Amino acid sequence: MPEAPTTAVAMPDELLVSHARSGDQAACAELFRRHRDSAYRLAYRQLGNEHDALDVVQESMIKAFGALADFDGRSGFRTWLMRIVVNTALDWGRRRHRRAGVQIGDGTGGSADIPEPADVDDPAQGLHREDLRRALDRALDRLTPALRTTFVLFADSGLSYKEIAETLGIPVGTVMSRIHSAREKLQADLDWDRLSESL
Amino acid sequence: MRCDEVILELAAPTADLDLAVMAEHLAGCEACAEWARRAEHLDRLWNATRPIEPSPAAWNAVWSNIAEGLARREASPAPSALPVAAPARRPRPGRWIAAVGLVGLAQAAAVLVALGLAWRAPSDAPESRLAERDRSIRTEPTAIRSERLVDPVVDIDAGGLMVIHFDRKSSRLEDRTPAEMNVGADIGMEMTNAMESIATPQMAAR
Ligand SMILES: [Zn+2]
């Protein structure tokens, strides 16, 4: 991965985008570095496992960098990228069903060349965390894609309500009402008597 | 302060409500207090299940694949040259049929909508349907549902969405096609959004 020039740290996304448009790979690398974590968290919550999430980040970045000519700059690069991640994850989810609770490194991942994520919890903690994850995954799975996507953007992307609205192409009021509905359903669905002891 | 205002603020905080007033309401309202407890539990569960961050080696591998994908793309713009399965642009259904199930209006202001959207994909794609879109909204509690009048089928090119409002004497066509469909836009999601913005009462943006 090419080291971004030190000045790139302070360079706004818009400037990096214009460099990336003219084929500057270091600018692409810096944009990737800046936004990969948000993209990953978003994909992970949509798909329920690390391997698919990494694949979706990869595919989304290729789409984004390949389509920079179509990026009109009306919204920020991050908002535009999140929109691509959302749609790629939805496609991915349709191609392969969400595999909630798939263990890390169980050999079912799609990217043989991508190493396992680092710092796995200790076994006792890992099991416990896996339990919680399964419970949340099942509840997320029962939401409609529209509610799930909106809630995940709200909870994990760091985007404002307005940016979420731009990402999804819906009014801000609809964003708020979807977040409310998603919470309502998740809170009603989860077995808090069992879960709250572990939280 | 009303319970619904408190719950909306708990669900999607705007910082518009005075915290002291909220706290006072929660202290005196068991229903809202229970909602707040569950919201807090959900937040804790969410934080406890954050994904494990990929290692630097994993990110480097992803970046290598991206760089390789971009290089191949430059060499040959065909989607099949990409190292990932999907093309940059998903093919879009060329033609849609929106079966807009009925809007019976007893009065112009009384809206009672039941919407169903059927989507006919191109012949080489499996038939898809946006199910679970049947909803009804009632903006006037006293509105009397009128009988189904007719089941119009609206034939729409290039992914548009038209809603037909009927009353006993006339009909009105309304274009609810999403304003824009950007790169990476998902046609199903666009339509879901469009349907939802028709069927969901909008909350005031704060
Ligand atoms: Zn209350």
- Find the structural class of chain B using helix and strand composition: alpha+beta
Count of structural domains of chain A: 2
Span between termini of chain A: 39 Å
Shape of chain A: globular
Question: Could you explain the architecture of this structure?
Answer:
The complex is a heterodimer of chains A (about 200) and B (about 210). Helices cover about 65% and strands about 0% of the residues of chain A. With about 200 residues, chain A is an all-alpha fold. In chain A, α3 (about 50-65) crosses α4. Chain A is globular, with a radius of gyration of 18 Å. Among the domains of chain B are: about 5-50, no CATH class; about 150-205, no CATH class. Chain B has helices spanning about 5-10, 20-30, 30-50, 55-75, 185-200; strands at about 95-100, 105, 115-120, 130, 155, 160-165, 170-175. In chain B, the strands form 3 sheets. Chain B has a 3-stranded mixed beta sheet, with no helix packed on it. A two-stranded antiparallel ribbon of chain B has the order 1-5. In chain B, about 20% of the residues are buried. The model of chain B is unreliable at about 80-175, about 175-185 and about 200-205 (pLDDT under 50). Classes of the chains: A mainly alpha (about 200), B alpha+beta (about 210). At the A-B interface, α2, α3, α4, α5 and α6 of A face α1, α3, α4 and α5 of B. The complex binds zinc ion. Zinc ion (ZN) binds near residues 6, 31 and 32 of chain B.
Task: Give me some keywords for this one.
heterodimer, A: about 200 residues, Rna Polymerase Sigma Factor, Chain: A, Arc Repressor Mutant, subunit A, 2 domains, globular, B: about 210 residues, alpha+beta, three-stranded mixed β-sheet, two-stranded antiparallel ribbon, 7 strands, about 15% strand, binds zinc ion
Provide a quick synopsis of the model.
The complex is a heterodimer of chains A (199) and B (206). With 199 residues, chain A is mainly alpha-helical.
